[in-house]
Design goal:
Length: 414
């Protein structure tokens, strides 16, 4: 019996790709485990220099923990190494893609004969999940000045609607109640997201459809109407901002300015007053003076995001931003990150406060120490005490009781 452990770093698309690779390995007869594997497969991210450092740190940590393990690298970091014709001494195999021939080459090179085990109980996932990612788009043509992904993922392509719906149906049959649509540039899905969304909402047993991330300039009125009106849509929009300074947005080569971004947020909240609006933000981009960073802080206070994913700028070789003048020191990046976190926690608590005494619909995902944890349609983390065995992967209604910047304490509705 050959065992493997697969870890994915980075975005939701990377998480999806990792899950599909694990599924292919299980079908071949490998057994997925959480400890002491024969093979440790790292689905690596290379969006920043820091991400590449984390890849190496994770590989070294796995080797220290399990000295006999075979190390395999795949994902964006593997693509980057292949493009640059570089080697990574830590690994035993570089898996360039998840095609059957590449997987067979890997197994042969690692001297792992698993064909006799195919069809075993190894096809059962290690853990059941309430939510599942559904990748419907890949590739990017935006070429932001800080990002290497467009160079690694290649031209944009969209998955045929019938193909995406077929996988969605399978995921629902496996018990997933919520699907999260993912893509490197989801808003560029062709022919458009609306026909796909309308087909997905027809699936019996699927309770929720969530958009993982979409550029503000791609939130049209028809898409917004669907999110606001469909009984299966989640009241949550993740709109990447990256900076609240127009000067920095131009240097980043982002396709909007703050006025345009604010107008989209206003439209979202006009249609859905209780919807969550979350974002991504990069601090310490080259040329970000204290004055320009202050513009970002003021804009964040204006936008009142319920969650901000904060990234400290890390130069990525091969991108224009890596050689720009005005590079920011690490201490300043850390200080600015902390300032953003303070603003975020204040706005998050203000948003959650609005749900105290209000009923929410929660999909319960995990249980620990007598407390169930799950997410509302608005992507609010919710906690509720439970006596006895928890009823996970179920949806119930509960009312907000109290809150912190990290979520809501709720009580079952009577």
């Amino acid at each position: 019996m050959t065992t493997f452990l697969l870890k994915s770093l980075g975005c939701k698309v990377s998480q999806y790709d990792g899950e599909r690779l694990a599924e292919k390995l299980r079908v071949l007869g490998l057994v997925q485990v959480e400890e002491a594997p024969d093979i440790f497969i790292l689905n690596g991210c290379s969006v920043t220099g820091r991400a590449s450092q984390k890849v190496r740190q994770t590989l070294r940590a796995a080797k220290r923990r399990w000295p006999a393990v075979k190390l395999v690298l795949t994902g964006c970091e593997a693509r980057l190494l292949t493009q640059r014709n570089e080697e990574l001494v830590e690994i035993d195999w570089l898996l360039k893609d998840a095609e059957p021939a590449s997987i067979s080459d890997m197994l042969a090179a690692l001297a792992l004969d698993v064909q006799a085990e195919a069809g075993s109980a190894a096809v059962v996932p290690v853990t059941a999940r309430t939510r599942a990612f559904l990748k419907v788009q890949d590739g990017c043509s935006q070429f932001c000045s800080y990002c290497i992904v467009a160079h690694l993922r290649g031209p944009e392509w969209s998955r045929p609607i019938a193909d995406a719906v077929a996988e969605a149906a399978r995921l629902v049959e496996e018990g997933h109640r919520e699907l999260v649509l993912t893509g490197i540039h989801l808003g560029h899905y062709q022919p458009s997201l609306l026909p796909l969304l309308k087909e997905l909402e027809k699936l019996s047993g699927l309770d929720r459809i969530r958009l993982s991330s979409i550029e503000s300039v791609e939130v049209g009125d028809k898409l917004l109407d669907w999110v606001a009106e469909s009984p299966k849509a989640c009241a949550h929009m993740h709109l990447p901002l990256q900076s609240g300074s127009d000067a920095i947005l131009r240097a980043m080569r982002r396709p909007y300015d703050t006025a345009g971004f604010a107008a989209v947020v206003a439209r979202v909240r006009s249609r859905m007053p209780f919807a969550a609006v979350t974002t991504d933000l990069i601090v310490g981009f080259p040329g970000e003076t204290d004055e320009l960073f202050s513009e970002t802080l003021r804009f964040l206070e204006e936008m009142q995001f319920s969650r901000i994913h904060i990234f400290k700028f890390s130069p990525r070789d091969g991108t224009p931003a890596a050689t720009m003048s005005g590079q920011i020191d690490n201490a300043s990046k850390t200080r600015r990150s902390e300032q953003v976190e303070t603003v975020w926690h204040k706005s998050a608590q203000a948003f959650y406060q609005r749900f105290i005494g209000r009923e929410l619909e929660i999909l319960w995902e995990t249980s620990e120490a007598g407390t169930m944890q799950g997410f509302s349609r608005e992507y609010i983390p919710c906690l509720m005490p439970v006596a006895g065995l928890p009823d996970l992967n179920q949806i119930s209604r509960a009312r907000g009781v109290s809150c912190t910047p990290h979520g809501l304490q709720v009580a079952a509705s009577s």
